[in-house]
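In this supplementary section we document a worked example of the pipeline. Step one takes a protein sequence of length 112 as its only input; no multiple sequence alignment statistics are reported here. Step two produces a three-dimensional model, which step three serialises into structure tokens for compact storage. The input and output of this example are shown verbatim.
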Amino acid sequence: MSNYNLEGVEEMAGGDQDFVKVVVQTFLEEIPPDLEGMNQAIIEGNAPQAYQYAHKMKPNFQMFGLGLMPQIKIIEEWSKAGKNEAEVHEAGRIITDKYKKAERELKEDFDL
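The serialised model returned by step three reads:
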């Protein structure tokens, strides 16, 4: 089973496979530095910064069907209300692991 789902990307591309590849490449370029920033903010206990990174990545994670909304929500709630602090490190790890699996598969599937 794949760690990503391109339905959202395919729908947006309207069958244009070159466009799909550009969207995939952009995703693979933009997410790693944001992921690193989010994880660093979590380590430092900087909830507002972690929220900014998580919020920025959220539409991409949704578009690629990564199913990470519960983890993003944990980070958002930590930032807004100081809730779920104990779960934040685990949420960051799950987001990172899931992205890395999808990244490997996308690179393979698109010869990147």
